[in-house]
């Protein structure tokens, strides 16, 4: 149905291309007067090939090949919309004959501006078919290359896993072997100590038995005297022999061991197992240091360039021009307030934010006596006081002014023991695995790892700590060079 907007309100209905019904004065020479002076002539050539010439000063011809699916709604020649359905799904909107734009709604997203409308012909049967084929081939090739890259990455992943399995087998076999050897050494030491003590006891028992026998022999000698003589005789003149024997016996007894001072420890192996475990732990710590160094070397390939965001810095913090250093000034600076700036806690965030992947950076802490480093959620509260903890969106490691290193866990902090004070701290974020790890960059020693689940974007976080009378005036410096470990 084609409603024509003209003063007479004439409509032209048709049913199908082969049976066109045109209630008009002459179906072979139809003149349609429009609402504007651009008289349009529509001659019907045949039912299979409809030609609509627009009789305007530009003489634009628009042929199409398939009248079976044609819709021509328009109100006036200055605002013509011709939608049709064909394999390319072409839509041709225009506003006036002087500025025609033809967007093709197809996968190629081609835009055809008609710069010269003088006698322009636009056939719509197989438009841009060849470029589309070329682009599809290119898209196929790009996807094939992506498949190859993914398979190559998968092979690298498999190789890495195989190496890690072999390394773990080697390490744990060595640990198990060391544990077994240590256990055997402990058992041997205990058995040897037990044997030594048994020999000592046997010697003492033998000595005691000899003395007991001697004493019994002495009692036997004195037995008849005691039985035949009275107490007065033993103590009087007639008891001289008895007194002599008694004196001799007493003298011999005094020369023997004072058994009251002889004792035996029943726990001769006390501490043997602990010392063995301690030695084993020293060996494990050495292996841990080796593994940490190897791990950090792998992690360093995820190094990113970090810079500070001055608009987030607390008013007491001074950020360097290159945005690589931050120090505490102990005085309030005139800075514009904004929702991103910390107003109570002396923090500053990094400009970069992360929502996937792995990232590593190092920070020089030098001889500072107080600092705080880590990552924070983009949506953290930056106004007022708050506790730096994972519950509030912070995963950080701190050096307190008393010299204690702590991981700022919740509900209470976790003390971290370090054998060596780090001058440079490495921070590693594995967003997908939900880990934030800290390393002593000089030695490669692992300090602490937070494990959590991340949903928000994360920013690096820095806090240089208060000046403490000038003892902590040095800045935190984002490092651009890395330690050789």
TrEMBL record:
**Coiled-coil blocks:** none
Check the record and name the Gene3D superfamilies matching this protein: 2.60.120.920
Which residues does the UniProt record annotate as the domain B30.2/SPRY? 286-482
Q: Which domain of life is it from?
A: Eukaryota
Q: Which residue ranges are recorded for the region named Disordered?
A: 220-242
This protein is called what? Bloodthirsty-related gene family, member 2
Q: What is the source species?
A: Salmo trutta
The root-end lineage is:
Eukaryota, Metazoa, Chordata, Craniata, Vertebrata
Gene symbol here is btr02
């Amino acid at each position: 149905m084609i409603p024509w907007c003209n003063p007479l309100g004439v409509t032209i209905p048709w049913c199908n291309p082969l049976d066109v019904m045109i209630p008009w004065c002459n179906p072979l020479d139809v003149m349609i007067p429009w609402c504007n002076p651009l008289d349009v002539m529509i001659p019907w050539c045949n039912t299979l090939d409809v030609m609509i010439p627009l009789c305007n000063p530009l003489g634009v011809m628009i042929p199409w090949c398939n009248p079976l699916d044609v819709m021509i709604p328009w109100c006036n020649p200055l605002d013509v919309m011709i939608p049709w359905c064909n394999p390319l799904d072409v839509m041709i909107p225009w506003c006036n004959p002087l500025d025609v734009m033809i967007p093709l709604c197809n996968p190629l997203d081609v835009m055809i501006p008609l710069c010269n409308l003088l006698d322009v012909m636009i056939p719509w049967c197989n438009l841009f078919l060849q470029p589309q084929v070329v682009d599809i081939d290119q898209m196929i090739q790009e996807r094939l290359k992506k498949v190859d890259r993914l398979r190559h990455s998968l092979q690298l992943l498999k190789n890495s896993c195989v190496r890690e399995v072999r390394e773990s087998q080697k390490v744990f076999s060595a640990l198990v072997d060391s544990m077994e050897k240590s256990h055997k050494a402990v058992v041997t030491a205990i058995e040897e100590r037990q044997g030594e003590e048994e020999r000592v006891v046997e010697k003492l028992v033998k000595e005691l038995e000899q003395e007991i026998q001697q004493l019994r022999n002495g009692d036997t000698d004195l037995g008849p005297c005691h039985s035949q003589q009275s107490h007065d005789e033993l103590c009087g003149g007639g008891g001289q022999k008895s007194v002599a024997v008694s004196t001799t016996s007493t003298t011999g007894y005094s020369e023997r061991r004072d058994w009251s001072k002889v004792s035996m420890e029943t726990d001769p192996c006390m501490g043997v197992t602990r010392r063995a475990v301690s030695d084993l732990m020293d060996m494990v710590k050495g292996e841990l240091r080796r593994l940490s160094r190897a791990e950090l070397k792998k992690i360093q390939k995820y190094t990113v360039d970090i810079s500070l965001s001055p608009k987030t810095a607390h008013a007491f913090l001074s950020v360097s021009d290159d945005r690589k250093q931050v120090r505490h000034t102990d005085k309030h600076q005139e800075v514009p307030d904004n929702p991103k700036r910390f107003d109570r806690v002396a923090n500053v965030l990094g400009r970069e934010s992360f929502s996937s992947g792995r990232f590593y950076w190092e920070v020089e802490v030098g001889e500072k006596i107080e600092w705080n480093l880590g990552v924070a959620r983009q949506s953290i509260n930056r106004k007022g006081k708050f506790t730096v903890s994972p519950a509030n969106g912070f995963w950080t490691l701190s050096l307190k002014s008393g010299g204690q290193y702590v991981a700022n866990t919740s509900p209470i902090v976790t003390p971290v023991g370090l054998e060596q004070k780090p001058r440079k701290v490495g921070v590693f974020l594995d967003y997908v695995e939900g880990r934030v790890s800290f390393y002593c960059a000089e030695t490669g020693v692992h300090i602490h790892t937070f494990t959590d689940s991340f949903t928000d974007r994360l920013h690096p976080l820095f806090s240089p700590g208060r000046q403490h009378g000038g003892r902590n005036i040095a800045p935190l410096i984002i490092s651009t060079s890395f330690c050789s470990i």
